Structures are given as C-alpha cells and as structure tokens.
Amino acid sequence: MLADNDTAEMQTFCETLHPATVAEALADEYSSEEVWRILSQTNIANQALIFEYFPIDWQVKLVEGTGRQHMARLIEQMSHDDRADLLRRLNPRVAESLLRLVDEADRRDIATLVKYPENSAGALMTTDYAWLPAHITAAEALDRLRCQAPDKETIYYVYVLDDQRHLLGVVSLRDLILADRQTVLSDLMEKEVVRVRATDDPEHVAQEIARYDLLAIPVVDEENRLVGIITHDDVMDVVVQEATEDVHRLGAVGPIAENYLEANFLTVWRKRVIWLACLFVAELFTFTAMAHFEDEIAKIVVLSLFIPLCISTGGNSGSQAATLIIRAMALGQVTVGDWWRVLRHELLMGLALGCALGAIGFVRAFFTPQSTLNPPSQSIIVEPLQFSWVIAQAVCIICVWGTLVGSMLPIIFKRIHVDPGVASSPFVATFVDVTGIVFYFSIAKMYLPF
User: Is residue 72 domain-resident?
Assistant: First the structure.
C-alpha cells in the first residue's frame, strides 16, 4: 500500500474498517511518518476518530511527527476528554504552541478540563453533553435535540438545567420519543439524579455507573452546576487500569502501564526487582527464626521435613484472604469501618479451614515411617500420635493466623492511605512464613520431649 503509493487503497483502509482496528494495525506495523502518510488520505474528522484509539504514548509520538497547524485542526475534532488527556501528557511548550492555534471556544473548553487533577472525575469527563431547559414540551425538546445531536458525544441522556446550569433532572431519549408531544419536560424528567462531584475518585465513578447500570453519569461542582458527563467507555478504561494495578501489586510487581511486550526491559526489571529484593530481605528473617530453633531441629530431625507443609498453609490461606478483601474493597463491598465484621468472619473461616487442613496434616504425620520419625541416630523417641497432634495443631493455628493477617493488612493499609494492593500475596506469604516458624516450633516444644 505504501510502497505502491496507492492512495485509493489507503483511503479505503482508513474509512472502511473500524477506527480502533485501523489504529491497532498502524501502531503494530508502521512508523509515525508512515502513519501520517496513510491518515492523510482521509478527512480530518476520521483522522481524529482513528487518532483517539492509539495508545497515549503513540499519540504523543504522532504529535511530534506532524505540523502544528494540522495537529491543531485534529485536536478541534477530537472528543473533549481525549484531547484534554493528550495535552496533559505533552511537553508544556508543545501543548502551549498547539493551543495558540486552536479555535478560541475549544481552547477555553480544554483549559476548563485540564485544570482538574489527573486522578479525578473532572479529568475523565467531557463537556460535550446534551441539555435542555425544563419549561419546553417533548416536541420542542426533540426538535432542539435534533440540532444538538451531531455535535454531542451521547444523546441517550438529556440533562435538564436552569439558567444558572444547575442540574434539575434527566430524561432519556426513549422517554422523550414515547412521551406525549405536549408533555412539559419538567413533568417528564427524573428529578432524583445519580451524580458525582468533579473532585471524586474515578473508582467511585466506576462503582456508581456499575451500580445503577448507567451509560453516562453527570458531574457537578460544589453548587450542583453541571460541568460535564462521564460516559461508560471512559469508565471502562479506568476499571481496566485499576484492575491491572491491583493484579500487578498482588503479584508483587510495580504497576506497568505499557503493553507487556513493548515495555522497556529496564523499566520492567526495575519494577520487579525492587519488590523481589524487599521480599528476599524479609525472607532472611526466616533463616534467623530457624537458626533460633537449631537445637530442636537437631534433636528431632523430622520436624524440619514438615516445615514446608506447615508454612505454605499460612501463606496460601493469607493470600486467599488478602485477594478476597482487596477485591471486595475495590468493589465497595468492604470499607475500613467494616474491620470488626471482617475480623469475626475471617476468624471463623480460618478456624474452619484450619481444622480441615489440620485433619489432613494429622493423617499424614501419623503415617510417617518409623525410620523417618525415629532414626537410629536420634536419642529422643517421638510417638506418632503425639507428633501428629503437633502437626495438626500447628497447621490449624498457622492457617488461622495467615487468614487473619491476609484479611487485616489491606484494611490497615487503606486506613493509613496506602494502596491495599501493597498487601500482596507474596508480602502476606513472607510475613506469615517468618511468624509461622515461631508458632510451629513453639507448639512442638510444648508437646514433644526435648
């Protein structure tokens, strides 16, 4: 296509396929210069549609690969929230040079959106919404909406405002179409409107949209004036981003925004090695704990054989609890104020799980061969029933302890304003490993004849 300079094929490629498919194909196969050669064969509006589907790092690279005048025209065609996000990522000098070339109305709109902090509802919203006054009829509303529709991101929800742009209500396009033509909008609208503040966290916005099954949600300021809307597609990006961060942290990896195979090797190495190094240093305390019980291990060698069995129980149960609580907190099902309910629930769950695993451990320890349980070189005689009880009790207690640690750490971290994802499975497992060894040998010393 490029080699033959087939402009007709380039135009067909850009205008026939979905913009997301075009962007994905261009980002995978072509340089930024080649991308612009292909995009130049379609109109500026379609260029903007395709451009929005490029990853943000690609968008920044493409800005550098075209003229400022052309980029300014493309920015004017972009959706309001996407262009604001792009300008946040650009070098301030580049962004300023582009803004000087943008239409004044668009420049004011961009300035309004860019002022909101990046991790807020205001940064996600678009000012491209449909609105109507409350005093008109359904027939008049449809006529006005028909004029607004070509320039709005969505018209499925129409917001009813007063002269000061206070949010009075919302009416769906379906209700407008089905309503009697002479019905006044104030009688047709839903007055109890689900809304969010511009300063709210994006996760809260996602929870509200999911809770009420909305296609879009209005964003208001402190005086209840409508400043924008957030559509479900933008919220999906937030959900994916937050879920990705949580999964990375659960695996003890610093969040990686880039595509896994395209991320810089040193960046990935740094984000992984930092956590691994911290966990490795923490695991050194396991060595210290075992060294403290060196005499007990020397007297009853079989104790060392059951260390992995007992310790892994605490790590696994703790990881389970941490995963469940972190996910519940992300969904808004558990808050910091629920800590006592969580503690009671996980204490009972830990006991139930510990008893089940302890029973399995009891059976396995009971059938330990005599040659392993009491080797000829060992001066202390260990009874199978006695040893089985030690293993069962240790497994049960360590399981309960791991469950409590795994459930409480995310809540503690949230309370001190640290991402609960830091209470990752490896972190919990490492902590429980060290303390589990102390529990294990302390129980052994209580029952075995040292």
Answer: yes
Pairing between β-strand 154-161 and β-strand 216-220 as defined by DSSP bridges: unpaired
What is the full DSSP assignment across 299-367? H-THHHHTHHHHHHHHHHHHHHHHHHHHHHHHTTS--GGGHHHHHHHHHHHHHHHHHHHHHHHHHHHHT
Token couple for 54: 């490029």
CB 125 within 8 Å of CB 199: no
pLDDT tens track for 296-324: 888 898 999 999 888 889 989 998 999 89
What's the CA gap between 362 and 357, in Å, rounded? 9
Tokens of 209: 């949209």
How many structural domains does the chain have? Answer: 3
| Bridge partners (DSSP) listed for residue 126 | 229
**By three-state DSSP, how is residue 31 classified?**
coil
**SS3 assignment, position 105:** helix
* Type of residue found at 419: D
Same-domain pairing of 67 and 111: yes
Distance CA 263, CA 360 (A): 45
CA atoms within 13 A on the CB side of 128: 21
Interval 56-102: pLDDT, tens: 888 988 998 888 899 999 999 998 888 988 988 888 888 899 988 89
Residue 123: CB atoms within 10 A of its CB come to 20
CB 51 within 8 A of CB 62: yes
Residue from 239, 257, 233 nearest 19 by CA: 233
Mean pLDDT of all residues in the chain?
A: 88
Radius of gyration (C-alpha) of the chain in whole angstroms: 31
Maximum Cα interatomic distance, the chain, rounded to a whole number of Å: 100
**Measured distance CA(320)–CA(49) in Å, rounded:** 43
Residue 445: C-alpha distances to residues 39, 195, 354, 400 (Å): 75, 61, 20, 20
pLDDT, tens digit, 9 for 90 and up, residues 382-433: 899 999 999 999 999 999 999 999 999 999 988 998 878 776 667 787 888 8
- Dihedral sign (CA 397, 403, 407, 409): positive
Residues 182 and 224 both lie in one domain: yes
Asked, for residue 68, whether it belongs to a domain, the answer is yes
Vertex 337 angle, CA 335 and 339, to 5° = 85
Tell me which of 115, 149, 179 is where a domain ends: 115
Does residue 286 share a domain with residue 137?
Answer: no
Query: Model's pTM, two decimal places?
Result: 0.69
Pairing relationship of beta strands 226-231 and 216-220 according to DSSP bridges = antiparallel
Residues 6 or more apart whose CB falls under 8 angstroms from that of 223 comprise 166
User: What range defines the domain where residue 98 resides?
Assistant: 7-115
